[in-house]
Amino acid sequence: MLFDSPSSFGRTFRILTFGESHGAAVGLVMDGVKPDLPFDLEAIQQEMDRRRPGQSDLVTPRNEGDKLQVLSGVYEGRTTGHPIAMVVFNTNQKSGDYQAISELFRPGHADLTYDRKYGIRDPRGGGRSSGRETLARVAAGAWAKQQLASLGVTVRGFNREIAGIEGKALDWSFVERNPLRVADPGVFESQKAAVEAARAEGDSVGGVCEVWIEGLPVGLGDPAFGKLDGLLALACMSIGAVKGVELGAGFASARRRGSENNDPLGPAGPEKNDAGGTLGGISTGAPVVVRLAVKPTSSITKAQRTIDREGRPSEISTHGRHDPCIAPRVVPVAEAMCALVIYDAWLTQQELREGVVPSVSEWNWEAIEALFPPGPAL
Amino acid sequence: MLFDSPSSFGRTFRILTFGESHGAAVGLVMDGVKPDLPFDLEAIQQEMDRRRPGQSDLVTPRNEGDKLQVLSGVYEGRTTGHPIAMVVFNTNQKSGDYQAISELFRPGHADLTYDRKYGIRDPRGGGRSSGRETLARVAAGAWAKQQLASLGVTVRGFNREIAGIEGKALDWSFVERNPLRVADPGVFESQKAAVEAARAEGDSVGGVCEVWIEGLPVGLGDPAFGKLDGLLALACMSIGAVKGVELGAGFASARRRGSENNDPLGPAGPEKNDAGGTLGGISTGAPVVVRLAVKPTSSITKAQRTIDREGRPSEISTHGRHDPCIAPRVVPVAEAMCALVIYDAWLTQQELREGVVPSVSEWNWEAIEALFPPGPAL
Amino acid sequence: MLFDSPSSFGRTFRILTFGESHGAAVGLVMDGVKPDLPFDLEAIQQEMDRRRPGQSDLVTPRNEGDKLQVLSGVYEGRTTGHPIAMVVFNTNQKSGDYQAISELFRPGHADLTYDRKYGIRDPRGGGRSSGRETLARVAAGAWAKQQLASLGVTVRGFNREIAGIEGKALDWSFVERNPLRVADPGVFESQKAAVEAARAEGDSVGGVCEVWIEGLPVGLGDPAFGKLDGLLALACMSIGAVKGVELGAGFASARRRGSENNDPLGPAGPEKNDAGGTLGGISTGAPVVVRLAVKPTSSITKAQRTIDREGRPSEISTHGRHDPCIAPRVVPVAEAMCALVIYDAWLTQQELREGVVPSVSEWNWEAIEALFPPGPAL
Amino acid sequence: MLFDSPSSFGRTFRILTFGESHGAAVGLVMDGVKPDLPFDLEAIQQEMDRRRPGQSDLVTPRNEGDKLQVLSGVYEGRTTGHPIAMVVFNTNQKSGDYQAISELFRPGHADLTYDRKYGIRDPRGGGRSSGRETLARVAAGAWAKQQLASLGVTVRGFNREIAGIEGKALDWSFVERNPLRVADPGVFESQKAAVEAARAEGDSVGGVCEVWIEGLPVGLGDPAFGKLDGLLALACMSIGAVKGVELGAGFASARRRGSENNDPLGPAGPEKNDAGGTLGGISTGAPVVVRLAVKPTSSITKAQRTIDREGRPSEISTHGRHDPCIAPRVVPVAEAMCALVIYDAWLTQQELREGVVPSVSEWNWEAIEALFPPGPAL
């Protein structure tokens, strides 16, 4: 795990992202792309639309076009094996919205730290620290998800909790049909009410996002610093609003006995999945289940105490267009980050074993399906 | 974040670890070491002794020597600026203890996944997946802690929880004086009793480890994939027994309103520290507080269902010398990993700003001490 | 020297290039840029214009606009410390010129190897293997040269030889005033005649490019695989037309006695510079002198034997717009690559020594000027 | 090409070297090693013995044991897929030989530059800058050569020139049977006489080493900064005594017409090999031919002008045990470095093409043998 650039991610499949919220463009370069694969820009655009704001009245009313353009690496609809650069030119920039706060540090935002770290700061919408940077992650993640799908691996997420209200049922068919991307129709209304109440008071709420990676072979991930657990944690904790990550039983396992926490092994695979799909940081074939703690949106209209660039006490109320709950838009970003980790691990394993990835069919998948039915992981 | 090798960690200050539990040696190479610094091997050895088993009857009775030897990069007691290779030759290897299980996969261990991933496995004590690999982390972390201390930064940890029993008080002076490395003398006895009860039943318990990094300047860490949050998560989740990581309020923040969760900013710095010392992934000057979910030791003498290498059902009871609770030994490893991240971030920031790191004195530290007294972070 | 991506270059200051000759754009991302520095796009554009074809009748008559656009990392004319993405959108693409040869492999070109390596190839002007990729190198090199200039380091080149005719004098003032970028007015006419004769016969000629890096402190470069010699060799040999690289006396030193080849050391520095400015791969303070063997342009109108994609014998005569001698346009590219290596080495040394680079004034520069006057290095 | 550590080399197959000439040990860690391969330590030791001094009276009479020990990554004679650490403990260290010169900078050595760069220097035999560092390269290269041999690729070298005397014939069977590793029996005696004459005068001579890589498939190497030409140049120029590198016709091509220099393509492959086995930096299937300019040994007993650490003029005569011509011992090091580049390129190509490397049999190898018989490349 040598960290070359904070803007790059991956090993065998690599990305480098660039761009500021209100600069000319946000974009990325994908490198390590295999040659002669079909490149479906439309499918990538669809993933980006899932992240886009303005999808409902529960998220910010901005409606950025976010149309992705390909600058290189694709010839007549197929990858050439060379770097694929993609950009979204920024439009609909209301910098004016942000002028007022260029001298004040918004609590919960990177304004203060960027200002002190760099000695210069692009105050327009947070510049590089803006959530718009995740555009590039979703574009790359969409490519990774497409490749994984062709390998039989699915990566999908939902919000397990909104405003502290936890869903128990896991109805995947409901997730993309509700604006909060929750999976339990039974609690959706109360979750929705909590978000609306917060917005009415100029406040915000958080949530817990859960990502399931299914159809994995045994053997993805590496020892030491290359454990899937660690890479997924880096991937998810690098999303702005995320303050905690856990795999499988996560923090709950810290309160258990070993005899209760260990997953017994059977001929069909692990007999339960409290480990969350990894042992020693390497995939077991069971679903990898990751949970992310998403903090409430930092930008609220309620007045908050803060300081200006000279350190003088002040008060701030961030108007402009903000989500009362960012968790719904975190879901596609979390899926993208997990997909980047898993696809990279797949390619890295190919490299390790002469292109041989342990067969998915090595497990009895029907039995595994029975062991891990669509439903709460724990 | 380009992942070159799963056995390497860091960017400006880098390590590469090697070695198996029962091979010839466990070791590491530290690279990116500044020249002409005093090299205190004894101080490093002391940190390694903190990790060593056999320190009490609550941890494994093994008493490995774990004497560190320096092979390169030091001349007459000072660093030369060249790679420093260090090794611990393995002694006291009771491979016999493990022969019995070479054909069985231990639940909760990497036996199964290594076997399938590599097609070959060193069954002696888990080989590369053994906790002994953390020896190398602690050695490098000790060096990082020494350098950070000279910069006014301290990295220290304790167990907030053992067996689900949470300590409220934070008495640093107590931590290294009790075998569980807990910080609340008031609940130590009950925590100790829970560990002993588990051991008596051939079982194990987990815990929650908490690391405090204090004395940081503003501005350490990077945007996007280089956030301190993400790097600390990778660092901690790459420790074998860790299944969850959170910063500051962590998962609790997901259940709050933004107005409650945001840390107001005052002339002395953040007025509380629910963010855990970072904003936008960059240090705020407040203590960075990380919590790790440590699962109960997987090796238990209680019988468990498992399979052999041919997938046939079997039963296993792992004897040998194991900790009923690994959390006390995770503390120095967690400190080491956090120190590697922070020291690397410091050097990386030096590189970014012409060797100028934002001054610690930029905040009113007396005021910050008042804001963040020794005590629970939250 | 871990090679992450063939399209990336550098360590502390890094670039990633992308784009094909006739795709949408050619561009790059510069990462590791220090914050709050003035960003002079015009100065960068000027360097790019030096590389541009169509500057005289001795180079290709194409006149690409090659206007550089900045997509990120610059705010109000200053760097923000975040990745700077820059692109040149391709215009004036006469793909038709190349249709004829899409099925034939041009001798001396990468057509054959790309086709076999990737199983797919963008035949339009060589795609990724086109000299147009060097656009991105020159843009990044221009930034590096600007930064080095502010540190007192100059990087400049010329052609020592054209068509086997060697110049003895080194008149820097003449270099940019003649289309061949040669430095000896005395032989320019004969060199020019040789190029024109080759062109008249539908043929091409080569040359030897020489780059001087002056004003260096002692101590840039690293041991082992990080020697300046090695990095400069990689940098220069990665330019398409270059088939040989030497430092200082280079191949001539292989035919000497040690007593003749060693540079005696005096109080003012090395008393001569046959080493070419490095000892043990680290700068001595004397000028670093690099020579590149530039092969004759592979694209010639003369008929040549070749094969088609099915391996059938054929004949090819590459029409279209080509330089009878590419060496003049290699000069700015070679300067750029050397500047990237040296600037990166400077930043890396800052990182090693707490931001302290050994002072240039440590040598008696007047004496060194006397030792190494403007003139042949050897 | 992101340069993480000057002591590391490679991408898919990586090494990290450490150790000083007179420290405790010289060693390396090999990472990215495939699992479950037979590990033949004896074969590696044999390669190291080729590099060892004391093989004849034409090289230094030192006879270091240089016995390689394996510390990790091998279990019961097979690789485990984990890092393989190997060390040679230094013996027979006559530090006394060097005490005298610890205050003087040896011309042609790194003493001056290390001293200024690091502010501290291990004066014993050059420390990290010593040729002993190449021990580690040869060990890793031996492994790479073994793997390449199993793929049908051979890497072998010889000295084309000694003391300016060039051999024309290429008799591979003669190379390892003469102490100069030259390939032309007809000029061996005169080359030998030149070396002996230099030694008799306390002087030294240089040479030109040539490495042939045969049996390559088409398609190894990458575009842009990943060209085989560039990587081989970095690999060879990172060897201490090397001051120039060329591929194929190299510098000679700079003096030719394009029609003469281009290699026509025929059904059996390139009809000649002036390109030296690459087009666009990627292998053509023809032998890759690299030439290295090896300077005369810097350590000579003849008195030379130099300065001490305070910059005062002095005189030095380096006694101790030195080779009058280092070129014979450079041959195995050059082979090792080329093998590292080629093996890494092979693995990297496997990663790019789903484990499919273009078949060697794609060319008519009998025809290629006929085109490139054992003999001078040019």
TrEMBL record, chains A, B, C, D:
FMN binds at R128, S129, S130, G280, K295, P296, T297, S298, S299, R321. NADP(+) binds at R51. PROSITE patterns: CHORISMATE_SYNTHASE_3. Residues 305-320 have a biased composition (Basic and acidic residues). Keywords: Amino-acid biosynthesis, Aromatic amino acid biosynthesis, FAD, Flavoprotein, FMN, Lyase, NADP. It catalyses: 5-O-(1-carboxyvinyl)-3-phosphoshikimate = chorismate + phosphate. It is an enzyme of class 4 (lyase). GO terms for molecular function: chorismate synthase activity; FMN binding. Pathway: Metabolic intermediate biosynthesis; chorismate biosynthesis; chorismate from D-erythrose 4-phosphate and phosphoenolpyruvate: step 7/7. Pfam families: Chorismate_synt. GO terms for biological process: amino acid biosynthetic process; aromatic amino acid family biosynthetic process; chorismate biosynthetic process. CDD domains: Chorismate_synthase. Its cofactor is FMNH2. GO terms for cellular component: cytosol. Residues 256-280, 301-320 are annotated as: Disordered. Transmembrane segments: none annotated. Reduced FMN (FMNH(2)). Its EC number is 4.2.3.5. This reaction introduces a second double bond into the aromatic ring system. HAMAP family: Chorismate_synth. Belongs to the chorismate synthase family. Homotetramer. This is Chorismate synthase.
